[in-house]
Amino acid sequence: MLSRSTLILFAALTVAVTPGSTQTYATSGGTVQFTSRVPLHTFTGTSRNLTGEINLGTNEVDFFVDLETLRTGIGRRDRDMRETLETDEHPFAEFTGRLLTSFDPSLRGRQQARVQGTFSIHGVNRLLTVTGTLEQTGSQIRLVADWEIRLDHYNIEPPRLLMVRVDQVQAVHIDALLSRR
Amino acid sequence: MAVSRIACFILVALIAVPALAQVQRVRADQNPVVDDIFSAPSIITTQSVTSLPASNLNVTIHHAFAPLNAGTEGLFGLDGPANIRIGLDYGLTDWLSVGVGRSRFDRLYDVRTKATLLWQRQNNSIPVQLAITGSAAATTVQLTDMEIVDRMSYSAALLIARKFSDRISAQIAPMVGHANTVFEQRTQSGILTPENTVLAVGLGAEIQLTQWASLLAEYVPIVSDRSDGTSNAMSVGVALDTGGHVFQLFLSASPYAVEQQTLGKNTEDFFDGDMRLGFTVNRVFGF
After folding, report:
1. Residue of A9, A15, A21, A74 best to disrupt the B interface, most CBs of B under 10 A
2. CATH for B30-286?
3. Which residues on A lie below 8 Å from B56 (Cβ)?
4. Per residue in A89-133, pLDDT tens?
5. Mind telling me how many Å the CA of A66 is from chain B's nearest CA?
6. pLDDT (0 to 100) of residue A4
7. For B139-149, what is each residue's pLDDT tens digit?
8. Closest chain A residue to B39 measured between Cα atoms?
9. In terms of C-beta density within 10 A (0-12 exposed, 13-18 middle, 19 or more buried), how is residue A56 classed?
10. Would you list the domain boundaries of chain B?
11. ipTM of this complex > 0.85?
């Protein structure tokens, strides 16, 4: 039988180490864009299903997007992209890491933010550091970040448009409004 | 004893809680639809169940040369009269498209629509894709005493298709063609009597050979009274998907690319060697 003081101690410790949910900001409708280039042509795959959260208490960052929700504006190209990314086997692009910089919600304007963590796509995990911005907008936080990935780093064979291969380097852009959870 | 158990529990909690808490990975669509059942919105001479996504414009050029049996003198049909249909189809929504086209034979202008009613689902909760198509066409051949209503013809079809595996798709399509005006033909063997309305069951299949190439086959048997002298259209071909274009190269026993003509007017028989070389270019633009 646990004594009352033991229970209080346990509860206090649990509260002390549990990430504060009041400092967690989450989204399920953020925007992700992958921009691909071929000579004389650029196209962008866009998804508005970026899902994830930032915990300002623990500095944890965790996001994912279902790659089957990417749309390029042409249905056939969407299908080709899904085949290239093998979304049946690897449906998500994911980033899990930590904020390396602090964020002060009381400050106005954009604050530079650096995160480091694991970016996963096509079943390959790679350590990645991304620089973006966080901005307090009312009760929400706006996250914007850009970085580039090389397809061969993730064992993705660039698709062809006619005889021309899509560039190895893909620009990634995310833009999300996160609400306090 | 109790105290050590509690201490142990707290220690586990202290170790476990700081681990990165991952958001649960959930698919946006738990039961996605099966991707393009056919590589293009048409099989060869008839429409496939494949739909155009919203805001996509598909430009098609369908070209059927003269019959191959023209021999070397007619360069196997390349020198003869070819039928060409130039068409535009546009996806108003992901399930509804409209199109216009113009064929050289009969100087035919057509409008058409395709509506997808059901989408095949990957978990087989819906095992087939279902679409309806409709077409209205007017010939502009110079004929006297023909009002516009006399020049009209129509077709409608129910397209039922299934992708059986990553490689094999098939379609069955009950269809009807109707021409407001038909003409008797006097031949050496007598008078050929045409039918205004003809029913058929279109059969089509596509077999994926590689990521970019597939085989096509199409057969359109008439199942009602038919116009005298007509034959069931049959075509075989190959589709080459280059990423931006789908090229279809085919041998077809029909010069037509509009269903009401294929059903009511085709006089060529594949097995008698009435094959025509042809191609269709499909190019999709996004807006």
Report:
1. A74
2. 2.40.160.40
3. 73-75
4. 999 999 999 999 999 988 889 999 999 999 999 999 999 999 999
5. 6
6. 62
7. 999 877 888 99
8. A76
9. buried
10. 30-286
11. no
